[in-house]
Amino acid sequence: MRVFCLIHSDRYNNCVNQTVLHGVVTSFVDVEQYKKKGPLQLYEEVFEVKFLRETGAYYRSEAAKLKDECSCSDYMEKVSNTFHSLDYTVCVKYAGL
Predict the structure, then answer these.
(1) If DSSP states are collapsed to H, E and C, what string results for 11-69?
(2) Residue 39: its pLDDT value, please?
């Protein structure tokens, strides 16, 4: 699915169209509400499962790189900074909040 290519590019600081990315994610929710099939079932089945799997793989890879490159205290500081920046990133880029 092309949206995962966009997310992958975004994670590596490549320029992606945030409006398109947000629109695709939002469309899963909108379609589900329209169909009244079940709360977020389409989003969960088509997008969320793969998104979470790829997100886990991405952060495992990033953590392994940091572990090899940093001292323990530097590693913990970078992990903490990443968590704080993710609050903003996820809310604005993907959820549009």
Answers:
(1) HCCCCCCHHHHHHHHHHHHHHHHHHCCCCCHHHHHHHHHHHHHHHHHHHHHHHHHHHHH
(2) 67
d(CA 34, CA 62): 38
Q: How far is CA 89 from CA 6, 21, 32, 43, in A?
A: 15, 13, 25, 20
38 — phi, psi (to 5°)?
170, 145
**Sign of the Cα pseudo-torsion (19, 6, 95, 1, in order):** positive
pTM score > 0.85 for this model?
A: no
List of residues 6+ apart from 17 with CB closer than 8 A: 6
Q: What is the predicted pLDDT for the residue at 36?
A: 67
Q: What's the whole-number mean pLDDT along residues 35-58? A: 80
Which residue has tokens 């998104």? 51
Cβ neighbors of 95 (< 8 A, separation 6 or more) are: 22, 25
Give the CA count within 13 Å in the CB-facing half-sphere of 78: 15
